[in-house]
């Protein structure tokens, strides 16, 4: 009989639950040779499917850059390159208290941000959970819920608010009263879905992404819908700016680190923003805005290579993810790299091997047959498992799927997770490289503010992005450095509300 030994330890699951693991596992050298060989053979096949060569990455980058240019020239492109009407960088002189509301992919967040200048701020925030029903129900109900949460937050937290734009003196007593009669606080509304904007306080929803599908919302002005919800309950709030979280991330990160020129989000969805010259945004030349002004562009690059699928290395698993999604043919780039989909890609590979009689023989695998049951957080745990016996991998498969695994299988699963995660990071670097090339940032270098669960929590993701930039640009790729971004959907939204109020009061631009 092969030698075996008892393994023990614990694993912290995505839910926060800690499981004690006790199991008998075989040493690798004692596993049947055929089992190890079979897993190795399959791994080589998946390595060829999921590995991106530097040459392929440079080709994708070039096509990506051309797509970005096209989106600036013509309206209604696959990658829409949305003008945000956020003009210029923050000065650091923005002061006072501002509200921010962030309608994200998982939570609704309400923030009170106190801007203190010189890259400093204080934030008070509360999160409210969104149900799947709310994401798919009527759009007006969704915005009514947002307004109700905003009301709850104001009633709970607004006993310490200065006038917008008013700087508090050091050690000044904080007022105990609520907002003064007639006073309205500026609100930055972070709405992280592609909108067509011609003014900063309006935006027509182009399409839902990240699993949302609220009815009677696409094609409508979401800022106007939210204003009506605010008016229904008579809140002392003025919606000043409608922004994307990536736009806010760019502004907030630059507020703290002026070397920041690009912002990226790698989380449930994926996106990027950067600052461009108005004169180079040909599709808005008719608006008569000063061509030398600078404006943030919300790329909405998750849609890159949608519909025609000419550039991205889609596998048959990616095609299944696309075809079974709520938006087939759309968001092709996002479906290869975002946190919403990586676990599902891995699950489809595992299910294929189950069907081929390679994995879990004699075990009931019905729990793995449910789409999206394999969370992307599992990939993070598998890659970061420090134990020789891969106890975290044992915990995932036994606790969630009631399946026993051999050591060879667990090593295979971890290697497969690494392939899927590495491909996502390297494709992400192609998008960053496209903006760097377009804007000529390579020689002097720049900092990229990055946020999202993949960037922040997935082990090695940032390092793989940097590795990809070097593969694309050579040693000069080291001039492009990512860093953890500031809170774009909260702090960035508040800063933009402050910048917009200042410009409106001064009458600087007609399109603010």
UniProtKB/TrEMBL annotation:
Statement: the UniProt record of this protein carries the keyword Kinase: yes
One protein family per Pfam: Hexokinase_2
UniProt superkingdom: Eukaryota
InterPro entries: ATPase_NBD, Hexokinase, Hexokinase_BS, Hexokinase_C, Hexokinase_N
Keyword hit for ATP-binding: yes
Molecular functions per Gene Ontology: ATP binding; D-glucose binding; fructokinase activity; glucokinase activity; mannokinase activity
EC number per UniProt: 2.7.1.-
Pathway(s) the chain acts in: Carbohydrate metabolism; hexose metabolism; Carbohydrate degradation; glycolysis; D-glyceraldehyde 3-phosphate and glycerone phosphate from D-glucose: step 1/4
Residues in Hexokinase N-terminal domain copies: 43-255
Keywords: ATP-binding, Glycolysis, Kinase, Nucleotide-binding, Transferase
Name recorded for this polypeptide: Phosphotransferase
Record organism: Phellinidium pouzarii
């Amino acid at each position: 009989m092969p030698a075996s030994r008892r393994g023990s330890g614990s694993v912290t699951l995505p839910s926060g639950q800690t499981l004690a693991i006790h199991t008998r596992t075989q040493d690798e050298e004692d596993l049947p040779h055929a089992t190890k060989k079979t897993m190795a053979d399959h791994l080589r096949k998946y390595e060829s499917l999921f590995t991106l060569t530097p040459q392929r990455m440079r080709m994708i980058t070039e096509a990506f850059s051309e797509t970005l240019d096209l989106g600036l020239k013509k309206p209604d492109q696959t990658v829409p390159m949305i003008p945000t009407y956020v003009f210029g960088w923050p000065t650091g002189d923005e002061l006072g208290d501002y509200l921010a509301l962030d309608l994200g992919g998982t939570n609704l967040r309400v923030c009170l941000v106190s801007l203190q200048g010189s890259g400093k701020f204080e934030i008070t925030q509360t999160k409210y959970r969104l149900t799947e029903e709310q994401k798919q129900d009527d759009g007006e109900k969704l915005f009514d819920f947002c307004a109700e949460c905003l009301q709850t937050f104001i009633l709970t937290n607004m006993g310490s608010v200065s006038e917008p734009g008013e700087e508090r003196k050091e050690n000044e007593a904080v007022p105990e009263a609520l907002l003064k009669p007639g006073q309205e606080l500026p609100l930055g509304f972070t709405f992280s879905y592609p909108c067509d904007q011609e003014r900063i306080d309006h935006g027509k929803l182009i399409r839902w992404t990240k699993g949302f599908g609220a009815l009677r919302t696409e094609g409508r002005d979401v800022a106007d819908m939210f204003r009506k919800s605010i008016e229904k309950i008579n809140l002392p709030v003025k919606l000043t700016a409608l922004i994307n979280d990536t736009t806010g991330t760019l502004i907030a990160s630059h507020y703290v680190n002026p070397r920041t020129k690009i912002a990226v989000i790698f989380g449930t969805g994926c996106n990027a923003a950067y600052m461009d010259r108005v004169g180079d945004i040909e599709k808005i030349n008719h608006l008569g805005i000063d061509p030398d002004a600078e404006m943030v562009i919300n790329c909405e690059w998750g849609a890159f290579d949608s519909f025609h699928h000419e550039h991205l290395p889609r596998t048959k698993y990616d095609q299944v993810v696309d075809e079974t999604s709520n938006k087939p043919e759309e968001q092709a780039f996002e479906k290869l790299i975002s946190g919403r989909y990586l676990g599902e890609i891995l699950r489809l590979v595992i299910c294929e091997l189950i069907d081929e009689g390679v994995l879990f023989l004699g075990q009931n695998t019905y729990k793995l047959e449910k789409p999206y049951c394999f969370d992307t957080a599992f990939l993070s745990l598998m890659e970061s498992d420090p134990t020789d016996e891969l106890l975290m991998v044992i915990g995932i498969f036994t606790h969630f799927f009631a399946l026993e695994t051999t050591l060879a299988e667990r090593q295979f699963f971890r290697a497969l997770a690494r392939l899927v995660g590495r491909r996502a990071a390297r494709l992400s670097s192609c998008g960053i490289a496209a903006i760097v090339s377009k804007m000529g940032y390579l020689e002097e270098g720049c900092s990229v503010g990055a946020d999202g669960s993949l960037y922040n929590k997935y082990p090695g993701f940032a390092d793989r992005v940097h590795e990809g930039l070097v593969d694309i640009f050579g040693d000069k790729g080291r001039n492009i450095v990512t860093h953890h971004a500031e809170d774009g959907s909260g702090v960035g939204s508040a800063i933009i509300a402050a910048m917009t109020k200042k410009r409106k009061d001064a009458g600087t631009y007609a399109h603010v």
